User: What shape does this take?
Amino acid sequence: MAAPRAQDTGLPPEVRRIAVVVVVGAIMSILDTTIVNVALETLSRELDAPLSTIQWVATGYLLALSAVIPLTGWAAERVGARRVWMGAVSAFVVTSALCGIAWSAESLIVFRVFQGLAGGMIMPVGMITLAQAAGPQRMGRVMSVVGLPMLLAPVLGPVLGGLLVEHLSWRWIFFVNLPVGLVGLVLAARLLPHERAVGRGVPGAVPRLDVVGLALLSPGVAALVFGLSEFGTRGSLTPVVVWLPVLLGVAAIVAFVLHALRIDFALVEVRLFASRGFAAAGATVFLVGAGLFGSMLLLPLYYQVARGEAPFDAGLLVAPQGIGAAIGMNVGGRLTDRIGAGRVVLGGLALLTLGTLVFAFVAADTPYWLLTLGLVVRGIGLGATMMPAMAGAYATLQREAIPRATPMLNVVQRVGGALGTAILTVVLENQIESQVGGAAPGAGGAGAVPPAARERAAEPLAAAFAHTYWWALAIGALAALPALVLAREEGRARAARDESSADRPETGAVVAA
Assistant: This one.
């Protein structure tokens, strides 16, 4: 009896082995979404291209990443998660090398698009493999492992990118993927299971690709993410480059939903949202994603713009949030498997709110120790919120529904992140214009601003950031509503299981008599 108890308190060896491989891939694909941001100015200078062109190095990667995610469920069922994962990582390594040897801005943008097409599959396919291997009873611990790079990448990406650009070359922000990817491929060849992902089709049959769904959902998600990103950049809905992609994206996604409800095997399974537990978990993932990625834009900017810190120093000052996230995910993952995701998410949101309140009242002279404490508390809250919410969604699924549900959860999180970033960027820009009367001093490089000018603007700038953080708090408050529904649905399911298990011994006694 000792062996089962040991397994109940941790992950089985086969699941731990898969988790190691998945984390290696996730580190590469997610880190590349943030590591490039600190190098954009350097890329603009060395490749002799304006920032309006070079920003497509980041935007092109993000759009390609978003567009390919819906395809991953079908691919895992069609050729097997192991083959898809190894193929995606191999392509990611090759395209990373091409990015590193790019000779112009145009060539780098093209290679980044191909890198995004490869990177978009790595994380969802890894999650499919882990979720099917672990089962719903261990999803809290599994998602706490997978979520580590997801929450640490926005913190560590700028720090690592700054180090590589400052001490080596911008090319090394891409070359660094080569050894990591090769290690991941060696591990995958030895540790990942060979069988195809188990889907809803006939066992042994080749799943059919939903071509119409792919033609609607992938471009729709990419257009929506692009439009929201442009909204954040331009600060207005009136430019055609903002409202037209958003309108087309929403229309394509709505058309996909109507199409998916009419066929048996859609590209992603939207019928799962008929379950209140899954719908509540999905809504929580969406809103927490909006708050997470939106506020991660604000943190380093506050240190650079309002406090005059260099980019690398700003990255280090944000790092305590990563420490808190690691703690929160470890504790939150174990609690999720014991008491349910809903209760853990509510506790995490409370901590997230407490940590964010420090920044909602931030000033130009707020002590760094207080900001650091707030970041640690925020990190614990994020760790106990994002991945338990995803674990709650998986816990509601049958094993065969996982391949088609996983891309949907990733799309929901990515769109939420783009929306949160766009909203908080616009709010911050409007507040800076209102408080300071123009663009943020130091936004393009705090070190270039005369100390006297920065000192005069520091307090109004800090007030602009404080106001924007109240919006981040509002997003967190909204996330509490679906989290309450999730906790209630989990409580009902737990009560039903307890009632069923209580009835079984009595039935057995009657039969025995």
Observations:
- The chain has two domains: 13-196, 268-496.
- The radius of gyration is 23 Å.
- The mean pLDDT is 76.
- Residues 451-512 form the longest helix (62 residues).
